[in-house]
Hints:
alpha+beta, 3-stranded antiparallel beta sheet, 9 helices, 3 strands
Amino acid sequence: MVEKTGPSAADVKSLREQTGAPMMDCKEALVESGGDVDEAVKILRKKGAASAAKRSGRGTSEGVVASYIHSPPTKGTLVEVQCETDFVARNEEFQAFAREVAIHITAMDPSHVSSEDIPADEQGREREILTEKAKQEGKPDDVVEKIVEGQLKKWGAERALLEQQHFNIEKHESKTIQEMVTDIAAKTGENVRIARFSRFEVGEE
């Protein structure tokens, strides 16, 4: 009887290079997926997300301020990305991630880090506008609220950095910024959070 063999060292190494996950986790994911690399990547992402959620309550007193100036130099961004230790803050991949976030902010112009940060009065004004629009379109009263809730959620996601899909879809596989935060947290083993940002553009007040 021929014994089943596990994933090859080359496959494990390749998956690690693709995801940045620990070697043992890569090996276990390949075993669980029966050698299906795409499925193994999904398994690792779920595991990384779970681990990131456990770390989310830990303090983030270290980090970097990353910058990006567009060419021509008419707009740019400063963003503060926090982590737990100076060791990770000095990590090249962590710093590259922070710069990617700065580039995205410059391109996509979000107004807040998350939809929860959008002030209640702004949400209230938008709700009134959407409600009036739905009524003018002749929507039945019993479905107006559902329509408005869905549109308000979409409006918030478009304005919130973490919920935006990275503008470079091909490079980042259509990931949201939150998914990218989760990935870097999994790779570094630390809680990572985007604390704040400021975007500047010539002529804007």
